[in-house]
Amino acid sequence: MTRLFNDPAAFADEALEGFAAAHRRWVRPVTGGVVRAGGTPGGQVAVVVGGGSGHYPAFSGLVGRGLAHGAAVGNVFASPSAAQIRSVARAAHGGAGVLLMYGNYAGDVLHFGQAAERLTADGVPALTYAVTDDVASAGPGEAGKRRGIAGDLPVFKAAAVAAERGLPLREVRDVAAHAGARTRSFGIAFSGCTLPGADHPLFTVPASRMAVGLGIHGEPGIGEAELPTADEAAELLVATLLKELPEDVAAPAGQRAAVILNGLGSVKYEELFVVYRKVAALLAEAGVETVDPEVGELVTSFDMAGVSLTLTWLDDLLEDLWRAPADTPAYRKGALGEPEASAAPATPAPDTEDEAIPAASDASRRAAGTVLAALEALAATVDTHVDELGRIDAVAGDGDHGIGMQRGSTAAREAARAARDLGAGAATVLAHAGDAWADKAGGTSGALWGTILRSVGTALGDQEAPTAARVAEGVAGASAAVQRLGGAEVGDKTMVDVLVPFAAALTGAVAAGDGLTAAWDRAATAAAGAAAATADLLPRKGRARPHAERSLGTPDAGAHSLALITRAVHGVLLDHQ
Ligand SMILES: Nc1ncnc2c1ncn2[C@@H]1O[C@H](COP(=O)(O)OP(=O)(O)O)[C@@H](O)[C@H]1O
Ligand SMILES: O=C(COP(=O)(O)O)[C@@H](O)CO
């Protein structure tokens, strides 16, 4: 239970503010996260890590010498936005490029990928690496789909030490990939976490049972079993990881491994030690030499009761990098010499970039009023359904869809209003709204909704009066852009299952001669049907994928919210026709 909070929507920002105030020796706050207080030494690759809030000490607590140069921090259980990541990376840049590192989640992949593209366009060389250590989240044949959990730490550390030793950007990424390929984790949980402001946990486990194969976002495990003793828990964790050796490790005997026994938030250190006692014995029995083991909270999930085991199978290089000293707010080992001189801030992060408002025709400015009304209706419908969207998302996901949509749609409405007040046309109002949505919400839906609004705006332009055909073209463009960006297809149980039939119905009705309002009405009806039909699908993308069976019978959260929004926008079109 999270008891101490103010406005739940401000929780992540306020926690970061307090963290930075408490740890000035190590970190300096910048827009979107924190960087090392002493900066990045000139000519050194900067390793910028990041992810959602709720996982402390990941990610901000891992910034300091011997570990990350900066951390981009998103909302609770939602990836930071591309704008946040870009800002942190520019502040951390020491002149030799930036490696962006994160766990393999849809929102992180989208936003860190977009940030890397924007940084490269800014003249800051940037590469990405997603950690995929959780063996429960996909089979060995699909290792690229696995989530990142406590294995983040050894992989981040290997890359950061390689950067400190002067390796160039590509080689630092190669070291990250090498460490990632040799890192595996597996966990169990006894109760889910409760998000700030929520009155019940994201999942529960019966008292005599445990969830097997936990996630770090309050996702339920992939299975359930009898509650074990501490020794039985250790046996399960060790046996699972010994079955999952990396390709280039033939057998455990004779190997060395970095070991992390990670508490997820409310398992006591003493309990962890009782489990570790057996973990150490079992690894020794298997002939594995443990190197600098860590027992404690390193990647958490609020107050979730759970524990995970991570093994990084070491070779000489990885052992050297794992043993290297580190000095961060939450992770310290060994002794470090005097800090090197930091680079002059090569690419200071702009706090805000005021985009000029391009000239618009009177007709487009009038249309901008309708666009603003549509965004107001959109935000109002999200507000009304925020709890319902969270509940649907919690069935197999992380329960944050309502909060994320609320943050995004509120920011979009405010940005649209400001742009409209400055005389913007329809395209510019939608572009500002889309950027604000992606920036303030982060997460998968933030990136995708930002793209939807921008795509529709591109089709409308700032000069012509929007016709029904242009609106339909814009929606079809948005549908194609979402599929390109997120890689989902119809049938994967995502918002694409609604966006594609919605766009097709709108285009079809307009081509058949319907006016915009009538065509939109038909399309919104098709959207509602398509959203309901996602209840029968098994998810193949996003957070819900590892819990596919559990989601049967419940519609996809993003599909449902999109259908609700299309109906709300129809109300605005009726009023403005
Ligand atoms: N690859 C994808 N393509 C399109 N939509 C996706 C994809 N992955 C997830 N989604 C949509 O995003 C929704 C989840 O949004 P949200 O909960 O806000 O993001 P997150 O999962 O990052 O917390 C899902 O219900 C689904 O509709
Ligand atoms: O949840 C996180 C990011 O993934 P999303 O796909 O945006 O939910 C974050 O907590 C882990 O980085």
N-C termini distance? 49 Å
CATH superfamily of the largest domain: DhaL domain
Helical amount among residues, as a percent range? 40-55%
Which class of secondary structure composition applies to the elements? Answer: alpha/beta
Q: Kindly estimate the percentage of residues that lie in beta strands according to DSSP.
A: 5-15%
Q: Determine the CATH topology of the largest domain.
A: Serine Threonine Protein Phosphatase 5, Tetratricopeptide repeat
CATH class type of the largest domain = Mainly Alpha
The hetero compounds bound to this protein are: adenosine-5'-diphosphate, ligand LAUYXW4J
What is the number of strand segments? 14
CATH architecture of the largest domain: Alpha Horseshoe
* Shape by Cα distribution: globular
Radius of gyration: 24 Å
pLDDT under 50 segments (min length 5)? none
Count of DSSP H/I helices: 17
Mean of the pLDDT scores? 93
Q: What characterizes the major β-sheet?
A: 6 strands, mixed
Q: Which strands sit side by side, in order, in the main sheet? A: 1-2-4-3-5-6
Taken together, the total number of domains comes to: 3
Furnish the topology, listing elements before pairings.
Elements: H1 11-22, E1 27-30, E2 33-36, E3 46-53, E4 70-76, H2 82-92, E5 98-103, H3 106-122, E6 126-131, H4 152-164, H5 169-181, E7 183-191, E8 209-212, E9 223-226, H6 230-242, E10 256-263, H7 269-285, E11 289-296, E12 305-314, H8 316-323, E13 326-327, E14 332-333, H9 362-396, H10 401-421, H11 426-441, H12 443-460, H13 468-486, H14 496-511, H15 516-533, H16 548-551, H17 557-576
Parallel strand pairs: 3-4, 3-5, 5-6, 10-11
Antiparallel strand pairs: 1-2, 2-4, 7-8, 7-12, 8-9, 10-12, 13-14
Helix pairs in contact: 2-3, 3-12, 4-5, 6-7, 9-10, 9-11, 9-17, 10-11, 10-12, 11-12, 12-13, 13-14, 14-15, 14-17, 15-17
